[in-house]
Amino acid sequence: MTGTLREFLQGKGVKFEPQRSQGFKALDVTLPMPPRWTPVPDPNVPDAFLVIADRVGGNSVYTSNAQVVVYKLVGDFDPAEAIAHGFVDSQKLLAWRTTNSSMADFNGFPSSIIEGTYRENDMTLNTSRRHVLASSGADKYLVSLSVTTAASQAIADAPATDAIVNGFRVTPPGATGQAPGHRGAATAPAPQAPTPAIAPAPKLPPRRSRPLPRLPPRRSRRSPGSRSGDAFGSGGSPSPAGVGTSPKPRITVAARGDNHAAAAGHPHTRPVALSPAPRTDRRWADRVGRIHRRTRIVSPC
């Protein structure tokens, strides 16, 4: 093939009528819009139908962009014969090198796609170009997409450019399976990488709390030499550890009426030895006090 697609159609007497995206209803043209990419309101592209570009990111002088051009073709021609010239316009670019190409139909329409690199203004550019010969009723249209970026930005821009190339659609109006978006408008978001599903954590059975065992009431321990706060109000402080204390004197009491017998050492008298009460509560102190009042203390000497 020596002639371009345009040259072939013009040789058949076919006229090219440029179309605008506003109010275009003959076909549904969908162009994905990657993050950071925005429409170019006044593109420097002849007969532009829609142009988007990444004017924010990138380190190259060349701005990555995607261009769509739509022509209504007035005249008779063979679409299969015409699309065979779809590669020629790209192959005529300066220092062109092809990396991929295909003549497979595109959504049921004759189509060609070619990808590669070429030189322009001392820069190496990477591009993907597709031509689609679409029909809408009795009318025929040529829809062309070109996605171009600097070769130095090809890897960094690959997610965006691949999303545009793979998400581009040309379908009859209202066709099923159409990508979301308005006709002739680049409103469909670029496909995002699927997020791996995260399985929810298994629910554990509710943990039954065991009641804590009840401890017996804690009894205060007293050192052998301590009688602080006892029933007799001695008020003594506990003896330090390791310090010995002398035993308390035994107190002998006798029943009432037997005081003289007890004093004389009567054999029927039974001396009773009382130790100071270890209890410290008031009721016990009162009780011991009553016993003390009813008895007479007799010295053992």
From TrEMBL:
Sequence ranges of Pro residues compositional bias: 191-204
Cross-referenced Pfam families: Lpp-LpqN
Compositionally biased intervals (Basic residues): 205-224, 290-301
Sequence ranges of Basic and acidic residues compositional bias: 279-289
Residue span of region Disordered: 169-301
Top-level taxon of origin: Bacteria
Extent of Low complexity compositional bias: 225-247, 254-266
Keywords for this protein: Signal
InterPro entries: Lipoprotein_LpqN/LpqT-like (IPR019674)
Protein name as catalogued: Putative lipoLpqN family protein
Gene source species: Mycobacterium kansasii
